[in-house]
Amino acid sequence: MSIQSEKIKALVERRAEARMGGGQKRIDAQHAKGKKTARERLALLLDEGSFEEFDMFVHHRCVNFGTDASHPDGDGVVCGQGTIDGRPVYVFAQDFTVSGGSLSKTMSEKICKVLDMAGRAGAPVIGLNDSGGARIQEGIDSLAGYGEIFERNILYSGVVPQISCIMGPCAGGAVYSPALTDFTIMVEGTSYMYLTGPAVVKSVTGETVTHDELGGAGVHASKSGVAHFAAASEDDAIAKIKALLSYIPQNNLAPAPVRPTSDPVGRLSDSLNDIIPDNPNKAYDMYGVIREIVDDGEFLEIHRDYARNIIVGFAHMGGKSVGIVANQPAMLAGVLDINASRKAARFVRFCDAFGIPLVTLVDVPGFLCGTQQEYGAIITNGAKLLYAYGEATVPKVTVTLRKSYGGAHIVMSSKYLRSDVNYAWPSAEIAVMGAKGAVEVLKGVTEEEYNELFCNPYQAAEKGYIEDVIEPRNTRFRVIRALAALEGKRQGLPDKKHDNLPL
Ligand code: HXC
Q1: Which one, of 94, 35, 26, lies nearest residue 231 by Cα?
Q2: Domain 14-61+71-245, what architecture?
Q3: Tens digits of per-residue pLDDT, 478-487?
Q4: b/e string for 407-430 if b means 16 or more Cβ within 10 A?
Q5: Cα separation of 88 and 46, whole Å?
């Protein structure tokens, strides 16, 4: 064998060993927990044969507590670049078989390199997280490593889409990087996110709690809103990442992918003419409206189980990606509360940052009042949504279906917040408040008189606050036509260092 052949053989062997991460025993333990390894996950995520790995031979440099004895090639993360449906993406997958995926300084350097390369190339970053947090043996170095990752998450926020998938226990620093990214997907039953696990909670606060109760996918997808999606399995989580990518662009300067459809732009939806109940206090399901007006009835909902009084998500209309924000009259009458405001504000800001037009469907009785909401700062949180809509410069098209009262009317992409095209159905009630409240204040005025004068779309139409009153069945093509006319929209903001969003 020539010297060159021997060197090639040694390389092949070393690569094979590196691919074993923490070794067969730990790989088996990972499988026994119903989890895949980092490399198996990347193989599912990326187009076959597209993965280019970086830094496979990087070692950790820690010598504390005997850790110098074990220097697996690549340390606890697999990094590189590949394609998904032919589009370039940058990826890192933490390898739980190496020190529980805990973050060493060299792991941080690998992840930072991926983030920097994605930022330079203008391509999305996907992180598959499975980590015990800061590597305890490395002390301050591992904290510095987290800090350097966080800084890059922040710098590239709004430049390239960042998606985090949580595929195991993620504690400490391992949860803050996902929190800085655009979307977080958790796997039910095998993934957890918490600052510290149940054992530490017990010792600090005395509270007894399970992993699932403290930071499982269900908790974060429905109670805290930390997770945008709860996936039934790792395969489902990967499918959700791919679905998400199909609606969003490579970066803030690139257009979102177009999806050709055979669903006619001019398709009328007769069922919408009958969807609003005669009784104004009766609910109807906003999902029915969304599915009726978007291409092929397909809607990718974000935060499905969190603040269900508002619906946000992606769809295509006439082949183009849109962000839909809609009040849900079937849940708390579609009222805006703290969680709904935060949820929608975050979504509006993502769409605006990445040039995805906003379609807003309004049926909102107002903001939720009472001590619970006031003590939780509904004023500041409601202002987040107001701010998000007001600063958004992407094309904005709004349709008011029924109620649009008071402050909530202004917030929900009204004309006064530089919305481009605002339509209303004949059933719209665009008013300062509903009749019941108004007659309490205006003595001597009957509900009938108030309704006649104010609870309709024509006051707003007569003053030019909406562009037109439209037949519900025409909504799809009227919105698509408005969006087409707005494709070249250019709008700026006054010069500033950055805004001061009410946080
Ligand atoms: C070093 C770690 C580690 C860590 C796990 N390991 N976490 N090594 N630093 N943070 C190692 C274990 O020693 C073990 O090594 C292997 O990974 C697998 O861990 P197990 O405990 O056996 O696995 P499991 O039972 O599945 O439990 C996983 C876990 C638990 C829930 C993640 O390991 C755990 O609670 N780890 C500590 C979590 C934590 O408190 N992190 C916070 C760090 S502070 P061997 O060799 O035995 O296989 C932090 C601050 C940053 O992150 C703040 C920034 C804002």
Answers
A1: 35
A2: Alpha-Beta Complex (3.90)
A3: 999 999 999 9
A4: bbbebbbbbebebbbbbbbebbbb
A5: 10
Q: How many CB atoms lie within 10 A of CB 242?
A: 13
Per DSSP, the residues of 231-278 read ESSHHHHHHHHHHHHTTS-SSTTSPPPP---SS-TT---GGGGG-S-S
* Ligand 1 site, residue 101, Cβ cutoff 6 A: no
**At the topology level of CATH, where does 270-485 sit?**
2-enoyl-CoA Hydratase; Chain A, domain 1 (3.90.226)
Q: Is the dihedral of CA 259, 265, 271, 277 positive or negative?
A: positive
DSSP one-letter string for 185-205: EEETTT-EEESS-HHHHHHHH
The H-assigned helical ranges of 56-197 are 105-121, 140-155, 173-180
For residue 300, which amino acid is it?
Answer: L
C-alpha to C-alpha distance for 94 and 74, rounded to whole angstroms: 10
In the chain, the largest separation of any two C-alpha atoms, in whole Å, equals: 104
CA distance 360 to 325: 5
The one-letter code for the residue type at 260 is P
**Residue 115 phi, psi (nearest 5):** -65, -40
Is 94 close to ligand 1, i.e. is its CB under 6 Å away? no
Distance CA 217, CA 104 (A): 26
- 173 C-beta closer than 6 A to ligand 1: yes
CATH 3.90.226.10: which residues of the chain?
A: 14-61+71-245, 270-485
Measured distance CA(161)–CA(353) in Å, rounded:
10
Residue nearest to atom 22 of ligand 1 (CA): 100
**pLDDT per residue over 435-458, tens digit each?**
888 999 998 899 999 999 999 999
CB of 58 closer than 8 Å to CB of 75 = yes
**Residues of the chain below pLDDT 70:** 66, 68-69
Name the active-site residue from 172, 215, 334, 382.
172
- Which pLDDT score is estimated for 173? 84
Pocket test for ligand 1, best of 28, 35, 96, 102 (most atoms within 8 A of CB): 102
Q: What is the pLDDT of residue 68?
A: 64
Looking at the CA of residue 199, tell me the nearest atom of ligand 1. 35
CA of 95 to the centre of ligand 1 (A): 12
- Reported as type and span, the H/E element at residue 338 is helix 338-353
pLDDT at position 70: 76
Query: What pLDDT shows up at residue 69?
Result: 65
Q: Which residues of 453-470 are buried (b: 16+ CB within 10 A; e: fewer)?
A: ebbbbeebbeeebbbebb
Q: Is 171 in the pocket of ligand 1 (CB under 6 A)?
A: yes
- Is 408 a known active-site residue? yes
Nearest residue to 181 via CA among 239, 111, 234, 236: 111
